[in-house]
Structure formats: C-alpha cells, structure tokens
Amino acid sequence: MVVVRPWGGNARDSFFIEPYLAVGVSGSPILGGEGGGIWALPGCVVGVFDTPLRRCGNLDPVVGIIAIYASRKVVNVRAIIPVAGFGSRMRPHTHTQPKVLLQVAGKPMLDHIIDDLEAAGVDGVTLVVGYLGDRIEQHVRKHYSHLTLNFVRQDEMLGLGHAIAICKEIHKDDDRLLIILGDTIVKADFKQMFGLGESALAVKEVDDPRRFGTVELKEKSNQITGLLEKAENPPTNLAIVGVYLLNDPALLFKALDYIIEKNIVTKGEIQLTDALSWMLEQGHRMLSFSIDAWLDCGKPETLLDTNRRLLETMEQPNLDALRKAYPSSIIVPPVSIAKGCEIENSIVGPYVSMRHNVRIQNSILKDCTIGKEAVLEMVNLHDSMIGEAAAVQGVRGSISVGDHTHIDAK
C-alpha cells in the first residue's frame, strides 16, 4: 500500500493507493507536471510534489501531490488444477467417484480448493481431467459456472509436468499462472502470495524433510536457488507442498518443451520440478512462501485427519438449534450436517460430516464422513468413510464403505 499525503496536509487528506496503476484524469501516467497521474507499482516510493497540478474541467488548481483518481490495473491470476489421477489409495470410494469429489468437512475437497482461490481473486480455472473426468466437469460447471472454466484431458499419466504442458495453448499468454494440486487443501494467504510480484513456491516446515521435495535457499533470504527431491541431507526443512505461482508462464512452457524434447524424466515421469529447475538455471527468480496449513486428502486416514482439522475451523451451529432439530439425539461439535438429514436416538460427533439426506438411527458416530442419502442403523463407528446411498446396519468399529454398498451385521 502506498500512502500519499498532500503537501502541508494531514492524514485526513491522504490518498491511499493500492500498488497498481494510478491513473490521472488526463489518462496518461507521468511523474509530475500538469494533469495526469503516476505509476504506483509494487516497490515504488512516491514522493511529494510542490508543483501546482491542475484537475480537469473548471476545478481550481491544487498544490500538493497529484490530483488523481486511482484505478486498478488488472493482473489476472489463473489456475491449473491437475485432477486426472485414479485415486487408487482411496478405493473402494474411487471406483465410483473421482477422488477430488470425495467430501471432507461438508463438501468435496475440490470445492475447498476452488472456493479459496476464488476468494483470493482467481477468476479462471483449468482442470486437467482423466479418470471419471466427465463427473468432475459436470460438478464444476454446475457450481462454478461464473468462473472462466477449461477442461483438458490427460489420457496418459505421464507426470505433473506433462499435465501442465498440455495446457500450453490456454495459458501461455497469461499474466501469472497458479498451479495447485487437486488432492491437497492448502490454507494460505493467497492474496499475499499474489502480491509478491515474483514467482513463488509454497513451502511448509516439516519434521523430516527427507520424505519430501525441498527448496534450497540463498543465505539469509527466501530466494530459491535449487529444488531437491527427497535429499538425504536437505539444507532446509521446507517441503514443497504443491502450490506454484509463476509470473512468466511463457518461460514455464518453454521449460516444459525443453525437458520433453530432451526426454528429461525423473522416475519415469515428466516432472514439473525439472522444468522449474531449468527456469532457475536461466536466471528466473523464485521465492519461497510459507503457508498456514498443508492438509493431505490422498489416503483415508489423512482425509479423516483433514476433516477434523477443517471442522475445528468452521463456524458451528447453535447448540440450542441442534437440540431443537434433533431432540432425541446428542450432537457433539464440531460437526457438519447438511440439509435434509434425519438423526434419531443417536450420538453424533465430534468430527462427523454428513452430506444431504442422511438417515441415522440408534447409532454412535465420531470421526466419520458420510455421503449423501446414506442410511446408518444400530452402528457404533469411528474413523470411518461411508459412501453415497450406502446402507450399514449393526457394525462396530472402523470401516470404509463405497457408494451403494449394503452391509447388515445385525
């Protein structure tokens, strides 16, 4: 934020100009003189001028900083979300559902990602789809039709770098490009990240960095000098979390073209990190950006942990309202209960999220995700995932049940 104070004025007279283009009434950006305005870009220091500057029309000349009207120069950030994987670690649920549409804390994991990006100002999303891609496209078009949407099909799983490369014709001319993985929910100040003005990779401190790709930093700086993949002795404990902001998409796609042409592969796949490393070698600056939370949804146990952590951050319904809605039951927050659910003679919570039109009778549930229209009777479940329209009776313990599955253990 640039604060501009008129000559001899006080705080009430200050202009507050966001770090974008400040356009004068003449429409031509200048540094001083009559009419016009200034460029107020990130990092600029705007001085105080004592030259009389004239507004348009019959307004009197003013002495002080430029008589301007601020308008934002729009610098678009568009996103690519790769979601083409099979989700084999999430079976049986991914036999019938794309992994990114599995619900966590009351809505599909993909919706958590897109909602956060939209709130930060991202207005266009490309989804790289594959397995059950038509289901993903149908869902996103239904719920996010107000965004600019593109869908690109990745028929062969040739790596993350390949998934991005096939989006070249859509994104090669973008101002800035955000790449974010579709099976990880990242909580971060994306607006702050976009405001850095340079390419940036999101990172998170981890206890054992040997298990992850990590960044190498310039001494006493957050400037990235190298990318390491599961190094034995990594120089930092900053893991790469799968969020990449590139302020030169054309150079990114040039890098991807290069590693594909030279057949540079890692572990048999075309890797995005190899392209990013090539960009660093060409002198492209990248910064590390620390995030608040890195929530994995790739396995049942990590999805349930993410469900717990997200529910803890969500606003909870009033307890009196819950008692009124479900008078024969006890609801223990935090929970997420969608519309149309029936709960009778049961204890639900903590950490239970259920979609629409679920029916619960004579049961005890905690740490569970429950798909829409599921029916649970006389069960005592914890750490469980229940699919859509599943029917489970008389089961105790922890289970993972896919869509339209019926289990009767009474």
Explain what this protein looks like in three dimensions.
With 410 residues, this protein is of the alpha/beta class. It folds into three domains: 73 residues, no CATH class; 225 residues, Alpha-Beta Complex (Spore Coat Polysaccharide Biosynthesis Protein SpsA, Chain A), CATH 3.90.550.10; 94 residues, UDP N-Acetylglucosamine Acyltransferase, domain 1, CATH 2.160.10. It is built from nine helices and 33 strands. A hairpin with a 2-residue loop joins strand 9 and strand 10. It starts with a strand and ends with a strand.
Largest sheet: 8 strands, parallel
Under CATH, the topology of the largest domain can be stated as Spore Coat Polysaccharide Biosynthesis Protein SpsA, Chain A
> Residue ranges: pLDDT <50 for 5 or more in a row?
1-74
Mass-distribution shape: elongated
What is the end-to-end distance?
A: 65 Å
Q: Name the CATH superfamily assignment of the largest domain.
A: Spore Coat Polysaccharide Biosynthesis Protein SpsA, Chain A
The CATH architecture name of the largest domain reads: Alpha-Beta Complex
CATH class of the largest domain: Alpha Beta
The strand count comes to 33
Broad structural category: alpha/beta
Overall number of structural domains: 3
Percent of residues in helical segments? 10-25%
Strand content: 25-35%
Question: What radius of gyration results from the CA coordinates?
Answer: 26 Å
- Overall pLDDT metric: 82
Output the number of helix runs: 9
Secondary structure: elements and pairs:
Elements (H helix, E strand, L loop, with lengths): L1 E3 L10 E3 L3 E4 L13 E2 L12 E2 L8 E2 L4 E3 L6 E6 L20 E2 L2 E2 H11 L4 E6 L3 H11 L4 E6 L6 H6 L2 H4 L4 E5 L3 E4 L2 H5 L4 E7 L7 E5 L6 E6 L8 E9 L2 H13 L10 H10 L4 E5 L2 E4 L3 H14 L5 H7 L4 E2 L3 E3 L4 E3 L2 E2 L3 E3 L4 E3 L2 E7 L4 E3 L2 E7 L4 E3 L2 E2 L2 E2 L4 E3 L2
Parallel strand pairs: 8-11, 8-13, 11-12, 15-19, 21-24, 22-25, 23-26, 24-27, 25-27, 26-28, 27-29, 28-30, 29-31, 29-32, 30-33
Antiparallel strand pairs: 1-2, 3-4, 3-7, 5-6, 9-10, 13-18, 14-20, 15-18, 16-17
Helix pairs in contact: 6-7
